[in-house]
Structures are given as C-alpha cells and as structure tokens.
Amino acid sequence: MVSGPSGVGKGTVVREVLEKSGNIRLSVSATTREKRAGEVDGLDYHFYSMEEFMQLASSDQMLEYAVYCGNYYGTPAGPIKAWLQSGLDVLLEIEVEGAKQIKEKVKDCVTVFLLPPSLDVLRKRLELRGTEGQERLNLRIRRAMEEIKEASFYNYLVVNDNIFDATADVLSIIRAEKLKTSRIGSFLGEVLKDQSCER
Ligand code: 5GP
C-alpha cells in the first residue's frame, strides 16, 4: 500500500513502479468524487453516485472505505481476491484511514508513506497541478498535515524529492519484502527436504 498527502506524487511513483515491475496489479478504487478532466471511468477510478457507493459498501464489496475531503473512496474487494489467489502482487494507493483498515485485515501487507521534501514544496506542487480551487486546495493542505502526523504507522517512509529515486526506493522495498524469510520460508523447507545431495 502506498499513501501520502495529496500532491506528493503518489500517482507518478505508482505508475513508474508498475511499469518497471512485472507481477503487480493496481487496484482501481471506487469514489464519489467528481471526475477530473482526462480521468477515465474504470481506469483511474470507478466513479459512483453516493447511493451506488453506499450500496457496495453495505454489501461487503469493499475491503475498506473512508471519507477524504468530503468524498468517499473505497477499495473493491473482488479483483484483489482474484489477483492474490492467482499469485499476483497487488498495489493499493489509498489514504491513511483506509490503509489502517486494510492493515487490520491483512497483517502482512506492506505499507509505504510518501513524504514531500517540505510542506512548501507540497503546496507548490498542488498549485501547479491546478485541479483544485483555493478552498479545496487549503482543505487538502490541512488534510496533508494530518496525514503526515500518521506517517509513523507505516512500515516505510520514502521522501519524494525526485521521481527517479522515490521509484527506486519503492522497488527496493518490494524486492526486499519478497525475499523475507517469512515469505519464502516454505522454499527453505523444500531445499532441506531434498537430502539426495549428501555423499
Ligand atoms: P484524489 O482525489 O486526489 O484522486 O485522491 C484523494 C485521496 O484518496 C488520495 O490520498 C488517494 O490515495 C485516496 N484514495 C484513492 N483511492 C482510495 C481508496 O480506495 N480508499 C481510500 N481509503 N483512499 C483512497
């Protein structure tokens, strides 16, 4: 799971990570937020009315959901279960409250928090992005500060000073996590079971 304040560059880092690694699928979230220019329904998000969203949430079809700056966001459960069953890794790009809900359910999930080099840089990036009016931008900055306070809940902190290094950091985390004894211990068992190489 990757979290981080709005404007920190999560989307770009996640896109780069997906491009450079083969076996990872990105969860497409559901949201009640309005579609931004250029966003595609089903690709960037599943855009739902409040009523549709609540129906999915109340029928257990979301792994988690949360409110972020007045809109609902949630992770559809179906695709994730199918991907995990077929041995694929799954990447979620979600905010802090949702990440906590997932951590409760999936204890061995790996959580990464992307930090901006400074709050000033974050504000400038949000202003440059130009997707929010002044009021919403201030709301997102306030929420950013609240989220950064929660960063210590995460397994890893990555500062997104530049995309190249931040992407390399996230890829290293994924690689190291996949080599953890707790994840490949069964392979060790297989090696030890094979005594045929004894002389
Ligand atoms: P944005 O409106 O900028 O696309 O996203 C706002 C926030 O919602 C971001 O922090 C993003 O990571 C988060 N978000 C996106 N999808 C989900 C989701 O499925 N669940 C939760 N809890 N947060 C999400």
Write a compact overview of the structure shown.
Helices cover 48% and strands 17% of the residues. The protein is an alpha/beta fold. The protein has one domain (2-198): P-loop containing nucleotide triphosphate hydrolases (Rossmann fold, 3-Layer(aba) Sandwich), CATH 3.40.50.300.
Explained architecture:
The protein is of the alpha/beta class and 199 residues long. The protein has one domain (2-198): P-loop containing nucleotide triphosphate hydrolases (Rossmann fold, 3-Layer(aba) Sandwich), CATH 3.40.50. It has 8 helices and 9 strands. The chain has helices at 10-20, 50-58, 77-85, 96-105, 119-129, 134-149, 163-178, 181-193, and strands at residues 2-3, 24-26, 30-31, 46-47, 62-68, 71-76, 89-91, 112-115, 156-159. It has a 4-stranded mixed sheet with strand order 4-3-6-5. The chain has a 3-stranded parallel sheet with strand order 1-8-9, covered by helices on one side. Helix 1 (10-20) crosses helix 7 (163-178). The N and C termini lie far apart (47 Å). The relative contact order is 0.18. The mean pLDDT is 93. The structure holds guanosine-5'-monophosphate. Guanosine-5'-monophosphate binds at residues 6, 10, 29, 33, 64, 66, 68, 73-75, 93-95, 97-98.
Topology:
Elements (H helix, E strand, L loop, with lengths): L1 E2 L6 H11 L3 E3 L3 E2 L14 E2 L2 H9 L3 E7 L2 E6 H9 L3 E3 L4 H10 L6 E4 L3 H11 L4 H16 L6 E4 L3 H16 L2 H13 L6
Parallel strand pairs: 1-8, 2-7, 3-4, 8-9
Antiparallel strand pairs: 3-6, 5-6
The structure holds guanosine-5'-monophosphate.
